Every structure is written in C-alpha cells, then in structure tokens.
Amino acid sequence: MKTMRRRDFLRTLGLGSVMFAGAGRAAAQAIHDGSRIVDAITLSARGGAAVIEDGKVIQPRREIRVLRDTEVLVVGGGTAGVVAALAARRAGAQVTLVERYGCFGGLWTAGLVLIVLCTHVRSGGTHQKMVQGIGDEILARIAKLKYGAINYGPESTADTTTDPEVTKYVLATMLREAGVDILLHSWVTNAIMDGDAIRGVLFESKSGCLAVRAKVVVDASGDGDVCDAAGAESVPHVHRIGLVHRLGNVPGGKAPEGLDLGGATPIPGVRWVNMQGPEGDCLDVETLTKVELDAREALWKKLKKIQDTPGYENVFLLDVASQLGVRASRTLVGTEELRLEDWENKKAYPDVVALGGEYAFLKDRGCPIPYGALVPKRIDNLLAAGRCVAADNRMLNYTRLIAPCMITGHAAGAAAALAVKAQCTPRNVDVAALQALLKEQGAYLG
Amino acid sequence: MTATPRWNRGRLLVLTALAGILVFLPAALRFIVPALSPFMFLSTLLATRVIGWSSLCAIPVLALVIWRRRGFCRFCCPVGWVLDACAKARPSATCSYARVPRIGQWAALLTLGGALASCPLFLFLDPLGLFVGAAGAVQPPFVASRLAYAGGFVALIALSFIFPSLWCRRLCPLGGTQDWIADAARAVTKRIGHVPSVGSSGQVARRTFVGISAGAAVSVLTFRLPRPGTAPLRPPGAVDENVLKTLCLRCGNCVRSCPAGILQPDLRPGEVTGFLAPIVRFDAGHCRDDCNQCGAHCPSGAIAALPLDEKNECKIGLARIERTACLLTVEKECGACKLICKRQAIVETFSEETYSVTVHVDEERCNGCGACVAVCPPRAIAIRS
C-alpha cells in the first residue's frame, strides 16, 4: 500500500477545499493559471538546519551530494575562468565550470570594466599583438557582432572596448559550443581535501550545498577563494574598490572641464565610467556592503552634476555594475612570483606560459608570466588563474587586468588538461609540452 | 731657423698613439688622468675638504714637481705631447713669450683662493680635464651633445697652431701650479736652511698672497651670494649649485657613466657659468636606486662619491603632479606612479566628500629620482628643483 506523504495529504485537502469553494461560484472563470507544484526532491541537500549547542551555532555533520564528477573543474566564470575552461576542453579534458552569477565575464561584463588593456606592445618601435589564441578569438567574435567592440583590429592603436551584453553572449556561446559543462548561480564555498591534494569543491546554490569532484581544480575565482579553502598559502591585499556605471544619451564632443564622462563604448551615446573608490579589504562583507551603498550614492551625485551641466541635461544612468570593482584581494603564494624588479631586470623564466602586452609601468616590451606563478607551493591538483595568480603588490596591478587574465587562464586551463592526460599533479606537468600545447592553441609566447 | 716641415715619423707616431688613447681610454683612466693633476688636487682639496683615494694619484706627481720643476709637463702631460707635436708641425720660428705675464700661475692662484671659499674659479681650465673630456666625447657610443666636451681640447690645439707653446709656457694653470709649487718649495727650503730671503722668495709670498686673496674675494662676491631663479636639476650628491659651476671640470665622466642616460651636458644654461655642467633630463629613464656611478666617476668631487643608500637620500628635485591631467583624478585605471615609487613617496588620498582619489607627493620621501615620470601615461609628472 502506498503511504500518504504530507504533500499528498495537503494536495488532497487543497483539492477538496477548492472543490468545496468552487461549488459556491461554479460559473466563475480562472483569472490565471497557478504555479505547477512539484515534489521538492532536493530539500535534503540542505542537510537540516543548524542547531545551537552551548550558545554556539553549529552546522550538523552531513553527507554532501556529489552533483558532478569531472576531470577539470574551473571555479569562476570570469575572463580567466572562461578561457581556462575553453583551453582545457579543447585539449580534450572533461570540464565543468562553476559560476556564481548568471552570466560569464565577471568584472569584464558584470563589473562593466569594458576596456581590454594590455593586449599589445605598441611602444618601443614595435606593434606586436601579445594576446593571441583563445583570448583573441573571443575578442574577434565579439567584434564581429554589431555594436560588439570598438578599437579592435590590426589597425587600431587604442585599447579594445567591448559591449558587456555581446561579451556575455559570446562567452556563453563559445562555452556551449566547446561542450563545457556549466553550473550557474553556484557559489563555491569550500574545498574537498585529501591531505594536501584537492579533490573538488563544495558550492552553495538554490539546491543547497553540493559537491563537484574533479581531478584538477582551476581557481579563477579572482579572490583566490579555492586556494584559501584548500589551505594554499596566499597574501591578502587592500586596494581601491570601485563601482562602474554606464551613462546613456551622452552627447558627443569634448566634455567640459571637470566633468567625468568616462570612456566610449560600442553603443553610440553610451559611455562607461570607471570609479577609483576607497581602499578596503575586499574579503570583508561589511566593507563590501558599505562601499556598494556609498558608491551608488556617490554616483547619483555625480550624475546630478552632469545633468546640471548645460547640454548634458538628458544624460541618464543606464546601469550600475552588478559586481563591485574589486581590484585586489588575495594572491597565491606560488612556486614563482611575478615581481616588478624581475621584469625590470629582464629575468628569464624557463617556464614562460604567457606573455602579456605592455602597460603603463611595463613599457616597450611584453611581460612574461612563468608557470610557477599559477602553481601553489604545497597544495596539489590546484592551479590559480586570473587575478589571484602569484604576483607582488605591484605586479598584481597588471595580472588583474582583462588581457593578462585571458593569458593566465589559457595557461592554467591547458596545464590542467595536460595534468589530467598525464595523470600527474599540475606541478609535475611537462612545461615543454604545455608550451607546445599553448602554441598549438594559438597563444603567443614570444 | 729652417722652414722644413716638422712632420717626422716620431711625431706622427705620437699623434696616432694619442688619437688611439683618446678613443680607447678606459673608464678607469678617464677618472685617474685628471686626478693626477696637482692643480685639481689642491683646488678640490681646499674646496671640498675631502680626501678621496684619487688624491693618492696626485701625491707622487706633487713629489715629482717639487723635485723637478715642471716635471709633470716634461714627462707625463698628454696635452703637452699633443700640443708640442702640433706646434712643431708649423714651419715657423719659435716664438718668445718672455713678455707675456704668467697668466697660468695667476689663474692657479686665483683658483686656489677661490677654492678656499669653495669655488675654484678656473678649475675648468685644467688641461687633463679638457683632455679627458675630449676622450669621452669621441668614444663610442657617440652622442652629439657630448661632443661639446671636446671643445676645450680642440681650442687648445687650434691655439697651439697659432701661438706654439703659448698655452704650456704661460697660460696653463696646471703648469702655473707646478711653477708655484716649485717656487714655494724652494722658498721654504731656503727659509729652513737660513738662507737670507731675498728676491724671488719674497715675490713668491707676495704673489701668493695677492692671488689667493683676490680669488677668495671674487669667489665670495660672485658665487656665495644668493641668486634668484630656479636651479637646474643636478645629479644626486652634487655639491651646492654655485659651487658646482666652478668645481665641475666639464670632463663629462658623469654623463658617460650614467647607465640610465639621464645626465646631459647643459648646453643652454641659465647662466653662462653653468655651461656644460651636468643636468638631469628624465627623457631616457630615471635615476636608478642601484647606481651611484656619476659620483664614483667624478674626479673633482663636484658630485660626491656616496654609498648607494646615502646617494638615494640625495634629492635631485621633487616630483610635481599636475592634478588635472592625472588619470586617477578622472577615475581612469592607473596608479602607476605610486606602485613604481620605491620610496612610497606618492600618496593616494580618498575623499568621502567627492568619492574620488587624488595623488600627491610626500616631499620628505621623494628624492626626485624620476621613476614616476616615464610611467605616467598622460605625462602629468615633472621633477622640479
């Protein structure tokens, strides 16, 4: 005999009462359809509520459901994570990408930082495209779409600026084309460890806490959350936190003195406005809350100033970034570290896996990035990509930018796939083979 | 006197050898050659009151000139060799300069007097300095502006074609110093030996007194007085601006030694006395914190030879940021100056009021090394004295 569950009982009761009520007004039409009631099969994922023991909030011990068992897990669907996932997938690995928001691109799109700095070396008598391969493929596909990008192409001497929505669309399309397994709205919260080796991550979602097991994990979370959870040594940083916004209906021509109208975007009349913002600890939720609130208030004041300027009355606030502009939070302590002195002294790394374009303080030649900057000192099966790679507090102002994130992501993804294929830990990956794979995937290594 | 050309094989050899020396003179010799000059040794000793190891080079020369009057001119002076060879190429009679006053000796005395008040007035006429300047100017890598350092030596050669031997016999302050040293030494030995002091020894004392007092007076009057206007940027460790103008030999050693290429001869100085003195231009780079070469290569001490940490504390100038051009003030991604500055002299301040960042320079910490100048994308930073 089938036992009646509570839901069945309620449903029966509800049905009965509707029928009972309906008897009163039998001729009335349904105004709208109700929602479809389904069985809450995932309710158990939460594992029961926390309890209070001795005045402390205690989370009960429980088993976590493993949602995926994969080869390469990429945490974070920002610039570095997307490129890493594409690189690993194209190298033949099974890839799962976990992203906390509903779109890809991270600070490039949700953060509205639309300018792609450091793709070239243009000074010193050269014009060399440094970001090639997957990163450039993304840019080219964005530029192909209407209102996708400006300043892209071999004749451009300015930095490419892209449209955030086109970028989100292109990134998602490319990931799906490549066959990357995607999990959105999933915020990675912890690591699964086996001694010094990471075996996967836990993430929070609407389905509760779930696990992904993986052979190699790429931490492209920006904040180095996985590195930290896994116990990899890292350096905390305090940097300026901004909040970018876009203005619409901005008239052309030169802006009056003292009026910050930001930079051009692919959409006519729309400009993106950066914000430097206050310095703060980006790993502190209260700081993030305060900056978010203060910055939103501040940019409305700035908008007022613009709208009070003759000729600019019709400028409106198009949107505010849904992600705070976190510049630096945590960097990995790698087996190698990017240091400004080393770049100045032209230090030669034997394990260069990325070669970035020039920047304000890295003039006239590219910036080589060694594989060691992605590899944690102690923890195995883990690689860093993007903003959290090992860099000193000066070089992180380079590695955090979009183009450098593309190339470190590319290197990390390719290395992860190689480690899976060779059944070794990422630190034992054959660097020559990695460099060959990167070149095969179009990367420029000099 | 015969009018036969005097270009014989020996002289040609001497000239060729000298041309070779000019081009291949190693950096160490460019430092040591001027240091041999007792004229420069005495002047810089009085002016800076510092004895460096370079002084050791001048001491044997001092002994030589006391032992043999003008011993250095006869045996060692490379300028003398060149000028001699050039003079003898001229098929004319030897000139007599008996009636020409000993200008060189007066120049030397005035210089030594000036040096007492820190400004050795005619130190730039030291022939070894001119010689080294010429050597540095013609050595590769060739830089057009450095050619100016060869000007003095070229002028001496030109002079020797018109008035053979005039420089060496009457004008050269190094020669004059040697004469004066020899005279003074003889006067002293006579005094010690209780030889009745007559004639020349009395003249020596009087001449010395007059020359040195006049030099000190001129130095005090013209160089010690405060001057209006902004001083040009000088290398780190450079002596006081007014002193530098006279203490600098114009040998160009500092300019050549600078690995960053930021030192240049001042070809258009605000005051003529600053001509060819080294100035700092940040077009090519900045003053590196791992380098103290300019001071180490300065033979006269116009740029003090300092250990690295002390040199890095010397202020070349101060960074000035043009606020309206600064990218951070217009919310653009930057901060390059702050992160390149190894002295944490660039400070960002955030205003809650305007919710924006401004950068300013900590004047205590900034040493004007200019590292921030080149990295500033809108070129909003300049070093000012």
Describe this structure in words.
The complex is a heterodimer of chains A (446) and B (385). Chain A is of the alpha+beta class. Chain A has helices at 6-22, 79-90, 134-144, 164-178, 225-229, 285-307, 340-344, 396-399, 402-422, 431-440; strands spanning 51-53, 56-58, 65-75, 95-98, 115-116, 120-121, 128-129, 149-150, 160-162, 181-183, 187-194, 197-205, 208-219, 234-236, 239-242, 245-248, 263-264, 271-273, 279-280, 316-320, 325-326, 330-332, 352-356, 367-370, 382-384. In chain A, strands 3, 4, 10, 11, 12, 13 and 25 form a 7-stranded mixed β-sheet that branches. In chain A, a hairpin with a 6-residue loop joins strand 17 and strand 18 (271-273). The termini of chain A are far apart. Chain B is mainly α and 385 residues long. Chain B is built from 18 helices and 6 strands. In chain B, helix 6 (78-88) runs parallel beside helix 9 (151-162). The A-B interface holds A 113, 115, 117, 240, 242, 257, 260, 262-263, 273-279, 294-295, 298-299, 301-302, 340, 359-361, 363, 393-394, 397, 401 and B 324, 328, 330-336, 339-340, 348, 350, 352, 355-357, 374-377.
Mean of residue pLDDT of chain B?
Answer: 86
- How many strand units of chain B? 6
Number of helices of chain B: 18
Based on secondary structure, the structural category of chain A is alpha+beta
Task: Report a brief summary of the structure.
The complex is a heterodimer of chains A (446) and B (385). By secondary structure, chain A is of the alpha+beta class.
Write the layout of secondary structure elements.
The complex is a heterodimer of chains A (446) and B (385).
Chain A (H helix, E strand, L loop, with lengths): L5 H17 L28 E3 L2 E3 L6 E11 L3 H12 L4 E4 L16 E2 L3 E2 L6 E2 L4 H11 L4 E2 L9 E3 L1 H15 L2 E3 L3 E8 L2 E9 L2 E12 L5 H5 L4 E3 L2 E4 L2 E4 L14 E2 L6 E3 L5 E2 L4 H23 L8 E5 L4 E2 L3 E3 L7 H5 L7 E5 L10 E4 L11 E3 L11 H4 L2 H21 L8 H10 L6
Parallel strand pairs in A: 3-4, 3-13, 4-10, 13-25
Antiparallel strand pairs in A: 1-2, 5-9, 6-7, 8-9, 11-12, 12-13, 14-22, 15-19, 15-21, 16-18, 16-20, 17-18, 23-24
Helix pairs in contact in A: 2-4, 2-9, 3-4, 9-10
Chain B lengths: L8 H16 L2 H9 L2 H11 L6 H13 L3 H5 L2 H11 L14 H14 L10 H12 L12 H12 L3 H6 L1 H20 L7 H24 L17 H7 L5 H5 L5 E3 L12 E3 L12 H4 L11 H6 L4 E4 L14 H5 L5 E6 L4 E6 L9 H5 L5 E4 L1
Antiparallel strand pairs in B: 1-2, 3-6, 4-5
Helix pairs in contact in B: 1-6, 1-8, 2-8, 3-7, 4-11, 6-9, 7-11, 7-12, 8-9, 11-12
